[in-house]
Amino acid sequence: MRQPALGRGAFRDGEHRRDPCARWPPRRALGHQNCDLGDHARSSGGGHAAFDNILDRVTDVATHPGESTSTGSVVLADLFPEDYATKFYTYAGGLTAPPCSQDVTWYVFENVVPVSARHLKALREIEAEAPPSRFHHIYFKAVIFPIMAILIGTAAEHWLSYNWKTLPYTVAVLLLGLLYDFFLSLFPADSDLFVITTLKESADMWHEIDGHVLLYAFLPALLFGDAMVLNTHHFQRSFFQCLLLACPGVIFGTFSTGLAAHYFLPGDLFSFTESMPLCLAFGSILAATDPVAVVAILKQLGASPKLTMQITGESLMNDGTALVIFNIFWRIYNYPNNPEENNFYGTLAEGDVGQIYWGNIIEFFLRMSVAGPLVGVAIGLLAYWWMSNATRKHSESDGIIQLSITVLTAYLSFFIGESECGVSGVLACVGAALVLARYAWPIVNSHEALESVWHALEYFGNTVIFFLTGVIIHRAVVPCVDTSELSSGTPTCSDVNVSFQPLHFAWMLAFFGVMLLVRCVMIIFCYPVLAKLGYGTSPKESAFMVWAGLRGAVGISLAILVKQNGGDDRVGSEIMFMVSGLAFLTLLVSGTTSGFLLKSWGMLGAPAIKKNMIKKVQSRVTANSEAEYMRTCLEENHDMIEAITFLGKLRHRGVEERAQPVGHQQGSRKRRQAVVFERMATDNDAPEKLTSSNMDDELLAAVGARDGGHGGGEHGKEPFKIEDLEAIEAHVQGQEKPGETAILRETFYNIVKRTYWEMIETGHLPRHSQATLLLLNSIEESLDDCHTELHDWNLLEKIINSKVGSWPAEFRREFAAR
After folding, report:
1. The pTM is what?
2. Which of these, 371, 339, 818, 308, lies nearest to 594 by C-alpha position?
3. Quick one: which of 199, 306, 639, 811 has the fewest CB in 10 Å?
């Protein structure tokens, strides 16, 4: 007796169908010396007595590969249904195990054979624990794929940074992954190039990676790294905007996309559209934007912090919501396969097949979406406590400990939440990261080291996952990449039993437009509320949010789960084809054009008024530098000609220019201002360009040493006096420009914030004190409103008064006296 063929998934049924709606939990094959007996089975309490003798030996066969065991005599007729001789179907075909070239006559019985739940559980445990025989002898070669991905990605980053800065890095890596797999498929199966054979074997192993492994290995690092550096004040202000898009928006997108797939896509080309629960699961995959893709694009483009926060916050939150919704509809669809399953998520269906209790679904949704962040917050607070006890400034070990704690927090929050607590691992990971973003940065020993390590982790993760996405997309749209065989005799091409025709690609392009339309309608419906919440949203920002709805690695990971555990190769291949193709289109079309849209709509870089102020500052810096250069030359006795030329402009200064108080001058202030600005207007009518010498003239004129002063000069006008400068100041104050003033206040606040951080680094502000967090938060709140006068201390005063108000009366009097 040899090991039963357990298939690829524990929840996978047979490929033989009498009715499209009839699906069975396992398909098992018992090999005989001269035949192969295929049979469907159904779980039952008592099982089938004839199978006990065989299934009791399954564990021995699975745990001792290559060995044999005896089951005694077996009567084959006892393994079949009682009416096997009269109620069956037959057709000519072949074996479903590679190389699939044998001629076989299949007999499919109308009635099923019951198998005990104990034996069914044993088969599943064996499948989960037994290593796949295809790659067990070449596992070590799996490490070459991420090495090649990082090697190619690094070379691409180097070239793009010099030659094509507008192309997003993730899009380039995805295309390179696609081309890499296409290049490997060009080599024949019997190629003598050992390097090519190793690369192909490694790519095959990564292509067949489990969807859960992909999520658990890459998603925590990418999510946590982005969430940990978020501006928590901006996130707090934008929270309800993100929540609106992440909950009602994703639910709307799920049902709209699912219904569109069910009624819009032709059933003869896409068989998965016949099942409404599966269509809604498909809709949930496409309803949420991918945080990995979105954050990578926005960082590279340099979008405004507030727009980046809205889009990033939405993608981080709606990703968790979409995973919850996907689990709901996927379990509804997969219920006939696993009616007895009761895992961490709880049972969603009870009673007869198809009977769904929506109360359980609502409870499941709330538990996943509400309890998930709470689990993350608890883990984040524990991590903060640990980091606060490792804050020796000049201790190398404490810096490593803090860095290690952040990495551990990322993966443990995701794993504990998703696997052990039965909540959303994504939301748990984001919740833990936000706790550290809010409280941990003042106690971090080295910001540069922590940020550099996390940037490296994100870079490696993005490179590998998008490179793998390119490989998966290539094999999804071109199923049989090649027909080469490994030393185990198993072909490396994908076992997809559907051939995609040009009509499939045409419908995929059409559905890309449908997907954009669904997101556009969702944003339009939400816009009136979005415009009033948080920082508000402009029409241009809303339009960009529609266009920037990228899909990527998270959706492809879920499509892999469907393909591996869906029980139908055709359905899994079709969903994989659609999801990977649509993700590729969003990255290729939307990703590459997002920078152009932001630039053409004036949403990149500083506003015009800020650019003008920067030019003014540059000119002043230039003038001051020239003046300082002349002063230095005079002191060092160099370039005396330039120095004498500059000093010669002072010869026209007269004795009448001595400063006198404004009150001692005769005439009204208004008349004096009028004379001053009339003279300034006359001077400004000169068409000549302002050169460096003109700058010197203006500078000297400001202090009363202008050419053409009292008693001479070109114009014969009186020089400016101190009262003139006061008149100019009064005029400027009366003609204040709000835009320029707001920019100056913003610059001042940023300088103050930087000063606070320098004081934290030098120890002048206590790193563990709540007062330090209050100072930093007062600046963040003040930056929200730069159009009013400086008010950061007013915010602190309110907080202090609220705290002092709770003190006893004698302490309040003592505090007021001080």
Report:
1. 0.69
2. 308
3. 811
